[in-house]
Write a structure and sequence with these properties.
Elements lengths: L7 H13 L3 H14 L4 H13 L3 H14 L4 H13 L3 H14 L4 H7 L9
Length: 125
């Protein structure tokens, strides 16, 4: 980011673009920089969590997504992703709680409802 090294939104967008192109390590790096520059940006934390999960860094994903839901407690998608990260870490109780919150916020989300009934979680979201 030569032109705007301190622009959190630019780092956030770079993280999203890298993630969409399959460069998950690059997405995590850019998203980490975004949260350093804008620690109250829920979307940046969410993107860091998604990138971490894509790398199967479930502990990192949980930490980032937990912060995302603290900053944006009505974000059903972040709650869903937090549930997946917790499930993939072996925290079934925590996963169920996060997924339950996701379906409370978005009752039409069939994917979250389905995950609530899965006894074991696959390692992808």
């Amino acid at each position: 980011m030569e032109l705007a090294p301190e622009a959190a939104v630019a780092w956030y967008r770079l993280g999203v673009a890298r993630g969409h192109s399959g460069n998950h390590a690059g997405a995590k790096e850019a998203s980490q920089r975004a949260v350093e520059l804008a620690p109250e940006n829920a979307l940046a934390w969410y993107n860091l969590g998604v990138a971490s999960g894509s790398l199967e860094d479930w502990e990192g994903a949980q930490a980032a997504l937990q912060r995302a839901v603290e900053l944006a407690p009505e974000d059903a998608v972040a709650w869903y992703r937090l549930g997946v990260a917790r499930g993939n870490s072996g925290d079934r109780t925590g996963a169920q709680a996060a997924l339950q919150r996701a379906v409370e916020l978005e009752p039409e989300d069939g994917v979250a409802w389905h995950r609530l009934d899965i006894p074991h979680y696959p390692t992808s979201a």
